[in-house]
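I am writing to request your help with a piece of structural work I have in hand. I set the record out below, with my sincere thanks for your time.
___
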Amino acid sequence: MPLDGNGGYTVRRYTLDFDWRAPRTPFAAGATIDATATQALSRFDLDFAGNTLRTVTVDGAPARAVREGDELVVTPARPIPDGAAFTVHVAYTADPTQQRHRDDAIGSYGWMPTADGTVLCLQPDGAKLVFPANDHPSQRAPVTFRVTTPPELSAVAGGRLVERVRRPDGRIRWTYDSEQPVAAQLVQLAIGRFTFTESRGPRGLPVRDAVPQDLVDGTAAYRALTPEHLDWLEQRLGPYPFRRYGVLVGDTGLPVALETQQLSVVPSARLLGDRVGAERDLVHELAHQWTGNSVALRRWSDLWLSEGHARFYERLYTDTHGGPGLEDAMRSAYEQHDRWRHDDGAPAEPTEPSLFRQIRYDGSALVFYALREEVGEETFERIERTWVTRYQGRAAGTGDFIALASEVAGRDLRPFLTPWLYGEHAPPMPGHPDWRVRPVED
């Protein structure tokens, strides 16, 4: 996705003002972007698609703005010097029907309408359908949402509820602060008739779920497992990396859950089904908070690090909690690995259309399983803890992981990991000489 993201500046904060009216109904919106120039700028780009543009200002002065595909090209009245702080304000009419579609696990993304509101599912590059952004997985900034809703609806976003104020006209203004930087693809805002339920995780961590009113009782049993899941993952990855967490029950017919930062979306169908299926989603999205959210992707070809890690811990958890055994799941993935590589690229070599295919999930979890078999469980666990600790709050990529794993293991793991990540065929599985890959037949 070479056109996503923009150079020349870094964003310090997004402040988003939404005057929500009704599902599938355009509404007045504004985005204030505080940024710092990393070079002298006579113009700069924002990722911004659709929506009806009203006005653009830079430091309060009107600016020229032209659309070029999914880019909004902004020319300020005066050039911005290298190192200068500047503020962009974009006023627009937001269109909450905007979606895009992918032929992989993501399916539809963007604004996901519900019966009485919306849920955001922005992965991989749907943020530009919602607000002007520097939409690259390595680029993160804090986000403030100020959302006005009708009195019968609630708004919820990732982060802390700062204020809830009833205006003179009876509408409610909700203000949320992400508290920590977040990549645009992991931003969450949902509007609807929600009930908020609160509990505590390890060390008193605030856990706040947002649940459609008619689903509170039906989803309660599995949502109550979050403190247990937090404790289980902390034993393996160290302290949870954010200040709060919660589950947003998505009553949208979504086929997949999503690891939006601090507030994971889990489809209601999963939470109304069997326990193993529910816990797979809950643990998977929670694991992402360490790997994919706190440790961000340097670029999209590093997605195997995010999805592979989350799938590995999901499989490791269900191995002892009523689901398929880890070894059986990994053996099945190994058998299919050459087919996946043939169809969708090796784990660290995706194409844009194949980004969220099975090779990036079970196929990439298999890489971590192979590494564990190669170096032993104790060394593998040290690699994992070091990875999420050293790169906490930073972006990292495949080369960083290989170097860190080699450092912790005390030997160069490039000859081992390179064919697993880039080769045309699955290498032999350490410790399992009897495992066989099914031949690819065109």
About this structure: The domain at 296-422 is CATH 1.10.390.10 (Neutral Protease; domain 2). The longest helix spans residues 326-344. The first strand starts at residue 9 and ends at 19.
